Task: structure prediction
Amino acid sequence: MNTQQEVQPVENDTLRDIPDEDIYVVTRQVRAMFGGCTSMTLGRWRKRQKDPFPAPIVINNKNYFGLTKIRAWRERQRQAA
Result:
């Protein structure tokens, strides 16, 4: 029995009416946004000296990442490449 759930990226129409600054996503959604990268990769990106990945807020021992900050970070990475 497969207990893994398929995680959909956050980039879809269900969020179109919510301002980006009010949207927080969990780690598995962030990983899906970056092609299924591992949690270890996110941790490494957060530890970088130059332009680290945005830190999450922690609620009830669960990480929530601001979507606006993630999109801005991703854009900076694209421009630097």
Q: What stands out?
A: DSSP finds three helices and three strands in the chain.
